[in-house]
Amino acid sequence: MEFASDFCLLSAVEAQPPSAATSAAAPAPPPPSNSRFSGVSSLGDLKSVLSGGNASLEATAPAGVAAALPAAGTNVVNVDFGTLAEAVPVMDIKPVSCKHCGAFASPLSELSQVTDTAGNTTCSWSCEFCGCTQALQVADMQACPATDGTSSCVVDYVIQAAPPSSTAKDTAGGAVIFAIDTSGSMCVTTEVQGAFKLRGAAADAAASLRGALRGEPLGDQRLPTQQQQQRRGGPVTYISRLQAVQAAVSAQLETMARDTPSARAGLITFSGDITVIGDAAAAAPTVVAGAALHDAHALADLGAACALTRGVGAARAALEARLFALSEGGPTALGPAAALGLAQAIACGAGSRLVVCTDGLANVGVGSLDGGGDAAPAFYEYLAGRAAQHGVIVDVVSIAGGGCDLETLGVMSDLTGGTVTRVDPLSLADNFATMLAEPLIAINVTVTLRAHRSVALRDTARRAVTNASALRSAPDAAAAPSAGAGAAEGGAAAAADALAGAAPASPAGSAAGSAAAAAAAAAIAVGNVTSETEMSFEYDIASDAAAALSAVPFQLAMEYTRPDGARCLRVSTARRPVTRDASAAAAAMHTAVVAAHGVRQSALLAREGQYAQSRAALRTWQGVVEDGLARGCDAADADRVRQRFQADAGALHAALGTAQAMEAAAGMAVEADEEGGGGGAAVAARRKNARRADDGLSITYSCKKASSKGYKG
């Protein structure tokens, strides 16, 4: 757990302005040259942009929207799942849990041991979360060794040992399956200055392709005249989307062969049918066409049967020969390719990755998005749940200029710890390198956050969390199938009950019983996590209930499966000092945590269709971050925090502004629909459908996964 301030704020006292000694902030570096906010050079400038902007977009939130947002501040808890890769003490005994609220006794717990005159020893524990006093066995004391005086502790418990190597799947990093779109639209080209020798069938067809298109008004597919080339200062080369993908995949194969030659890699291509190249060990690839493209179960069976039998070090030459022999043509059987590729990745074991690279709409076979309706979205939600259950990450890469409905496809990445990106074709190599640098850390992760009974918790989207409420990490994926991450696990509380031999408490997927009503708790199914996965909570503390406290206890229980198959429970417990002075809390702010939380919150609100609230949240959190930086908080990382917040907030604000401008042009209400704190189901559905037609709004996916580590130097 990481907190947004060194203090928990008890009351809503207004923070005092920073002193002159701390108000001088270092100048921010300029944003990227391609930013739509090129005139923004400081958080103050950004505030002006966010609060002013284009008058036609009514950037100032209506009073009803502003009133619906809880006050932003430093009472934020951040959960960094990357810490699961860190070694912590492993307890070889069962954890002790409170029979009232389910919290775990820890080295920070207050235990007592009394021996009567007859020599009988009794023990008791007054739970720091709910206040319940309960008798313990003397042996239970061993689970709570004396604290060394620190305010936090982290321990692991092994719920189930890793399976024997003879029965476990090969999980040494799993495999990477590249599913490559080779439909006709992948021939669209991008102009690059300079003369390049291109490899592959696409290069052989380039001259005839451009000749055929020379007289058609197809933008960047047309050759400029010789005079235009001369005015531009030299020769140019036209790189097709497929050639850009070939180069990017080739670069990753080269890196894998050099750094991890035993890791496995496979290729699948899709257009009007599917071609399974695998690791190119077979003399000829397997082609799947016709009725099989409409049968999800048959596709899964075919994928599972297409084993990868050798490492990329041995397979690279054959893989690249097949890769550069690809050519474009036909429609887009994306759904069938995703189903088959996922099954192949599952067969390779936890930690495997499916990278789907496309530029167009799925329009053949199962998962076709051509006709609308709910069947296709439900299919991709099913794939997401299956991938998360088996520890497979799915990345979706859309090539800018095409439209593939990232709103629908993105759910595959959202639940599995993957990424959703829309990139220029010439940036694909860097994009692939970045995503593959984030290996899977744990699968089937569930978290339970508990706090003192005086605390009221809210999730990232500022929804109140009732005691032991079951939530989703992705509010827009609430309809994901029950096969999703953690659905069959029962959560950390159930794991602790099994370890401790106690009567089962309410599982993570259901409401808690009345016995747990005294302590604040939230249980969430997360799914797969990488080193960059984070989530956060806000909290309020009732001053009267916490008046006698000098510190507030928090506890995070994370149940997870390691890539080697071991099921573990990590318990992190911390005490945070309290204050009624908002200035003291602001002066001890960790701005990277606040900035990342604010961007995640705004993105989540946007994904729920609450665009006005999203923009209002951006402005509110910008003010909190600006205040912390002005007070000198995180001075070493101040420039990085400013630059990253400007980039993320600016991109999200611009995307929402574009969406609302389109609504206004179509005669739809822009802000009035959200008066009072939400647009309602009809507005949310309308905006979701609009996002399906505009892949530019996929920025909400990446912002929803903002990591505080990215805001640090």
UniProtKB/TrEMBL annotation:
One of its GO terms (molecular function) is SNARE binding. One of its GO terms (cellular component) is COPII vesicle coat. InterPro entries: SEC23_SEC24_subfamily, vWFA_dom_sf, Znf_Sec23_Sec24_sf. GO terms for biological process: COPII-coated vesicle cargo loading; intracellular protein transport. It comes from the Eukaryota. This is VWFA domain-containing protein. It comes from Tribonema minus. The lineage of its organism: Eukaryota, Sar, Stramenopiles, Ochrophyta, PX clade.
